[in-house]
Amino acid sequence: MKNLSKNGLLFSSEHIKIMMQTEEQPEKFSRLHMIESRASFSLLFLLSPNIRLESNDCETKFLFRKNQYILHYSSSESTAELWAENQEAIKYLQIQINYQYIFNLIDPESSRENAEILENMIRNNYIFLHKKTPPYMTVEMQMIVKELISYSKKGMVQRLFVEAKIIKLLILIFEQFNEKNKAQQEPGISFAVKKFIDENYHKNIRAEDIGKLTGINQNKIRKEFKSQYNMTVINYISELRMLKARKMIIDRDIMIKEIAIDCGYEYVQNFTRAFKKKFGVSPEKLRNG
């Protein structure tokens, strides 16, 4: 494959492979080739914007936004091509899990519900959750992906860590899928607003912006959201941002300014103020112990 990633293979066992691809400055017209093994599930997390994908076993070309993902089953070995618009950076994490591992994990013979879950996975019903648009990672998914990328231990401890995180990712995907189905049956303003926040909290959005962007009356948003989730919209946004910041702060390679921007704060001082209010110490003090 041309232009191999700087990171490459992060983990490999009999049943699981984790690969990180990073290409900061793709050559013009260059494409990355992603291989899916026979009888395997691929979890693909897109970590940079505007990535196009074309698979040889699918007639459709996909366009992925940053923080979108798919869970795809491939019955035979296949190859997909990925490239970025306007020679932008290409960054994604691919987790390959063989069929037998998933079969043993879900144990479809134990219950009808488990059998349906495996059937949904094989039929690729978990790829498109929102009107044939790849779903966005939730906050917890993003945290797990970052943990998988940065984990440094090896051997049995790493294997146990990876398997635990993959199980958690699958649980979150199933929950997201079921939540989508529930929303279709019982659509509500509070759910729509929560979904919007979950997908956009890292941007510089304010509570008043949500009404404009979703087309829902602001007063109605505030009232129904608090009634459903027992917290205000502003508090929920802050909770998500602080959860993400707390996870990122332990990585000394990431500047405080970068964390602030990644958590949706335009100014570092606003981020520092919110962080100190939440945890009682400044980001710098918590990082330095």
How is this structure best described in words?
The chain has 289 residues and is α+β, with helices and mostly antiparallel strands. The chain folds into two domains: 8-184, Jelly Rolls; 189-288, Homeodomain-like (Arc Repressor Mutant, subunit A). Helix content is 46%, strand content 19%. It has helices at 99-106, 112-122, 139-150, 156-185, 189-200, 207-214, 218-229, 233-248, 256-262, 268-279, 283-288; strands at residues 8-12, 16-23, 32-36, 40-46, 51-55, 61-64, 69-74, 78-84, 90-98. The strands form two sheets. It has a five-stranded antiparallel sheet with strand order 1-2-9-4-7. Strand 5 (51-55) and strand 6 form a beta hairpin. Helix 3 runs antiparallel to helix 4 and helix 5 (189-200) crosses helix 7 (218-229).
What characteristics describe this protein?
289 residues, alpha+beta, Jelly Rolls, Arc Repressor Mutant, subunit A, 4-stranded antiparallel β-sheet, globular, disordered N terminus
Q: What structural class do you assign from the helix and strand content?
A: alpha+beta
What is the H-and-E element order? Answer: EEEEEEEEEHHHHHHHHHHH
How many strands in all?
A: 9
Lateral strand order in the biggest sheet: 1-2-9-4-7
- CATH domain class name of the largest domain: Mainly Beta
CATH topology description of the largest domain: Jelly Rolls
The major beta sheet can be summarized as: 5 strands, antiparallel
Question: Average pLDDT across residues?
Answer: 82
- Taking Cα atoms only, what radius of gyration do you get, to the nearest Å? 20 Å
Low-confidence runs: 1-6
Span of the ends, CA to CA: 44 Å
β-sheet strand percentage: 15-25%
Residues in helices, as a percent range = 40-55%
Count of the domains: 2
* Tally of helical segments: 11
